[in-house]
Amino acid sequence: MLSMQLPNGVEWTAHCLVVLEQFGSTQPVPSAALAEAYGLSPTYLNKHLQKLAANGLVTSTPGQAGGFALARPAQEITLADVVDALDGRGPIFRCTEIRCQGLFKERSAEIKASGPCRIASAMRQAEDAWRSSLSQVSITDLAAGVDAHSRQQLSEFIDRKHPEGEHQP
């Protein structure tokens, strides 16, 4: 079983960004309404949305009519941006060079001189491909896959929960 897992917040906030795309950058949507729409913990969702705000993906407006809105156009925000904001930008795989330890310690200089660890190289290549793939999927792309009925249902729900910000879907 694969032990590397992204935090739940990646899925949660990606769905929320799709909703925010629907509402535009001028109308903040309360995190409590987003949490209720998806059956999520408001506290944990807000924590993840704050990370997106700290990384410039959304803006946060305090107060009764406040909430979150996209900080830039949806086509400029990618899944890679979401992953980086929530999970960091560091490498997934960290090579500890065990090929130069234990039995092979005395030959470590020779082993290192023969080239980079092939396992580390393969993992880096796979991670680069994964990140490249995520960077090609924008929030606009994801929003295009949401059916009209779901968009309308979300719009009506948010408007009921946040009447100060009524809009046209």
TrEMBL record:
GO terms for cellular component: cytosol. Signal peptide: none annotated. It comes from the Bacteria. Pfam families: Rrf2. One of its GO terms (molecular function) is DNA-binding transcription factor activity. NCBIfam families: rrf2_super. This is Rrf2 family protein, putative transcriptional regulator. The lineage of its organism: Bacteria, Bacillati, Actinomycetota, Actinomycetes, Micrococcales.
